[in-house]
UniProtKB/TrEMBL annotation:
<feature type="domain" description="Tubulin/FtsZ GTPase">
    <location>
        <begin position="3"/>
        <end position="124"/>
    </location>
</feature>
<keyword id="KW-0547">Nucleotide-binding</keyword>
<feature type="compositionally biased region" description="Polar residues">
    <location>
        <begin position="117"/>
        <end position="129"/>
    </location>
</feature>
<dbReference type="InterPro" id="IPR013838">
    <property type="entry name" value="Beta-tubulin_BS"/>
</dbReference>
<comment type="similarity">
    <text>Belongs to the tubulin family.</text>
</comment>
<dbReference type="InterPro" id="IPR002453">
    <property type="entry name" value="Beta_tubulin"/>
</dbReference>
<feature type="compositionally biased region" description="Acidic residues">
    <location>
        <begin position="131"/>
        <end position="147"/>
    </location>
</feature>
<dbReference type="GO" id="GO:0007017">
    <property type="term" value="P:microtubule-based process"/>
</dbReference>
<keyword id="KW-0342">GTP-binding</keyword>
<keyword id="KW-0493">Microtubule</keyword>
<dbReference type="GO" id="GO:0005874">
    <property type="term" value="C:microtubule"/>
</dbReference>
<dbReference type="GO" id="GO:0005525">
    <property type="term" value="F:GTP binding"/>
</dbReference>
<dbReference type="GO" id="GO:0005200">
    <property type="term" value="F:structural constituent of cytoskeleton"/>
</dbReference>
<keyword id="KW-0963">Cytoplasm</keyword>
<dbReference type="InterPro" id="IPR036525">
    <property type="entry name" value="Tubulin/FtsZ_GTPase_sf"/>
</dbReference>
<dbReference type="GO" id="GO:0003924">
    <property type="term" value="F:GTPase activity"/>
</dbReference>
<dbReference type="Pfam" id="PF00091">
    <property type="entry name" value="Tubulin"/>
</dbReference>
Length: 147
């Protein structure tokens, strides 16, 4: 099974990423609350490539959103699909880089944001490993039943 963690960085990356999630959600029949309202089983066939299924049948994008300032994150949250993201997956600083690449690279907050992002990716890996182990156990039980 293929699973993708979508990484959005900076103002441009987060604006493009927000539109990406609108399109992907529409293609899979996911509404802005994360609920499936599609009309075809094909929409759910590979939904776990981009989404984790949360409690209550809600689908949550497997995404990490990173920026040096909170403004872009606020824009994403207040956008059409902003409520489907996990709040923990927003990683941002407070000062920003003022559209100056060199200043952004020099900021210590970049290092902190990178560290936070690595922690989130590590959590996803642990979750996916645990899920894969559970699926393996179910497959083994099914094989024993057939024997």
């Amino acid at each position: 099974m293929r699973e993708i963690v979508h990484l959005q960085a900076g103002q441009c990356g987060n604006q493009i990423g927000a539109k990406f999630w609108e399109v992907i959600s529409d293609e899979h029949g996911i509404d802005p609350t994360g609920t499936y309202h599609g009309d075809s089983d094909l929409q759910l066939d590979r939904i776990n490539v981009y989404y984790n299924e949360a409690s209550g049948g809600k689908y949550v994008p497997r995404a990490v959103l990173v920026d040096l300032e909170p403004g872009t994150m606020d824009s994403v949250r207040s956008g059409p699909f902003g409520q489907i993201f996990r709040p923990d997956n927003f990683v941002f600083g407070q000062s920003g880089a003022g559209n100056n690449w060199a200043k952004g690279m020099d900021e210590m907050e970049f290092t902190e944001a990178e560290s936070n992002m690595n922690d989130l990716v590590s959590e996803y890996q642990q979750y996916q490993d645990a899920t894969a182990e559970e699926e393996g156990e179910f497959e083994e039980e099914g094989e024993e039943d057939l024997a």
